[in-house]
Protein 1
Amino acid sequence: MKENMHSSITVQQDALTRILANLVSVSTRKSTIAYLSHVRVCFSGNSVEFTTTDNELSLTDSLQGIEGAIDAVISVDAFRLYEIVRRLPPDVGIIFSIEKNNLVVRSKRIEFSLPYLDAKHFPLISEEEKMGQISFAGDEIRSLFNKVRFATSTEATRQHLNGVYFESDGEKITVAATDVHRLAVATLTKKTGLKFSCIIPKKTVSEMIKLSSSKEVDLFLHGKEYVSRIRMVFGGIRLNSKLIAGTFPNFAAVIPQSFKSFLIFDRKGLATSIERVGLVSPDQSRAISISMKGKQLYLDASNSDASFGRELLELNEEVNEELSIYFNHAYLLDILSALDNKEVIMKFNNATSQVLFQGDESALYIVMPMAF
């Protein structure tokens, strides 16, 4: 790469800090492949574009109309650059220049020199043929995925569960996630004219939710016979992601068609009570029991050290039979946090079969009771 020691650009510290803060969340801090911990910096005239990747997901953002000009494409340590930039004085421009195979960063009387790699081997995610496009309001897509993402699996042996199922039948969008112990399903009525299904990695979902704040989001589907990539555009930010290969479980088959009993709770009140009693539940199982008798409901938790907690809740209607159902209380708190309704409905048949929680028709949650 030909260097011009007299070329430089000046950028604002706050704007660059915001960009790099987003980008480093995609990079891999410790990797045997140097480029995966780097940021690709493309200087072109009076603009500069930044890209990071973990080989499955890439994020690109840029600064336009900046002072000065450089023409170069380099790859530099993303985390080191971010830590330097965010600690520079906020009220003074940052000057970048390419000098003697180094990226030089200056601000006031501060100077850093960072070695770089040639960016020609930086792994960019290729974009296949575009199959379709869906436009969302930022709060619309954020709310939809926030309702289910907590239920994704963390087990490496179940890769097809390590993401969120995303489906459109042309009239409605459905998202779902499960770790086998619980299932979360949410729907959004939206005419797309597209019929497809795919599994979006949970890291991609997290980045999508973070970036979609108060912005319009354009989602592009890429592939040939089936969707194999998605690309999302948030204003000037572009997120490009591979998808998870595999078949998502037929989750509709595990949702009971009918229930014998149901209870209605104040959502925030129930969450507070579960969190309080759960303070003495075992660290590993996090078990808590919900016991019903007449118009009374008890939340109980105990530990091997003889710790015990109980809270009594009064019910509006009498329960037909005495029943105790054991849950991982963290699962219940995840569900109650994902909902934003004032009330939550709990539907059940017995102490061992699936229990359904629902705030309204837009989302439902299935939890398997614990065996005791």
Protein 2
Amino acid sequence: MKGRKSGKTKKYIYIVDFEAFAKLAHNVIIIHIKNIIRIQKCVTFNQVKGIFGFGDSDVIDKIGFPAAQAVPAISSTFPFIFGNKKVHCLVPCAIDQDPYFRMTRDVSPRMAYPKCALIHSSFFPALQGAKSKMSAITLTLYIRLLAHMYGGEALIMMDKLAEARPHFEPTFVSTLNSFDFETKDWYLKSLDAAQNVVRYNLAVALNLKGDFEVAKSLLNTCIHPIVASKVFALKVYIDKTQAAAAASLVTSRI
């Protein structure tokens, strides 16, 4: 969540970061709940039925949720930032979130706060194609494996080796099935190949961390042709690094 001045009028707007909002302290959550109740008092059941399509059989929690979604667009939710100022809110969101904040715009004047403004975006397309939006539930196992590998490599580049290592545990590929290896553009054609690639990447992380013996032991299990040249090169690098370290130690003792 961040605040900034808007144009020549010097009015303040703020952009809501819901993930950061969820991590706020206990006293802020109390204010959050109070504003939820205030919004709920301004919206009737008939209104939420018309906006969201709720029916008589829907549970109370579902009916009350729109107020919780709307409350970050009211600046008094963040008194530690804005004090008593009534500040305009800018909400970047996907188009499916529009009903929540249209409701908020109707409620805000009744609470004596300015209406929020929206920036709409389209859905993130799914990795399987643009016919549906992205969802972790629908990701195939091979995409999950690639995500772990890319995530681990990114963490290595940021020198976060301890965080990178779990992404390269071979157990991530234990449940791959034959369909995953028939997927278009997936160059690993067997479970053994996938396991070897993951083990090699884990050895790289261990090498960078300085765990040379563990890395070498792991490299000895990487026998698939797909990683053969890389395994050989990394073994040579580790041997030379260890030899240089040993020579340096001998020199320092002399």
Protein 3
Amino acid sequence: PFDQQAISVFLTQVNDSRELTGLSPVDTSTAIKYLLASDYDAPKAIKLYLSCMRQRKAYKLDNVSPYTRCIQKELSSGKLTVLPIRDETEPTVVLVNVSLHDPGTSDPVTAIQAISFQLDEATLSPITQKNGIEIIMDMSDSAFSNIDMDLSRRFLDIMQGGYPAKLNHVFIVSPPLWMRASLRFLLGFLSVKTREKIEIVSPRQLTERLPLTSVPVSLGGLAHVRHQAW
């Protein structure tokens, strides 16, 4: 059962604030989404909501159209795929293929808009809202030309406090040795709580952390990645 008191507190404070700026009120489903991501802690959920709204405004996420050429290019690239939910008790798995990214032809803001568009769709699921998200950042076969520290920072920044879904873990799989120092530098900009959720693992270690049905075949699991179907 949902905590009606927490829902009431969230709706009252958020909608009072929205009314002052001429915005329409949010509904109960929005309150539940943010409360689930915050363990039904109303002040924490309100803080998350406000942070998310700031991020959405900064990246103009409410004006993103999947039909524009630049967004379509990002969406069809396969850089980010949400794997099918196979068990209602398990988190949603988001696969990031770093080797498919080319910083020379991809604008970081456009990439974030496309990523957020997909995450918006994923977080519509009550299962995702309840069980949270596991991110697999596959760096297998990545070259120096694929690395985009600016985009990585923006992506993790959004996930650590600007999205209405619990971030359970980020598994960075097989980063090149020369990349590890840069990763440590990047992690220094994140909160301690977020850093504790990030692990650098091998494919074998990944299969020990997640169910095989949640790990792509390419990394030793049983999940078939069908990006176009997603």
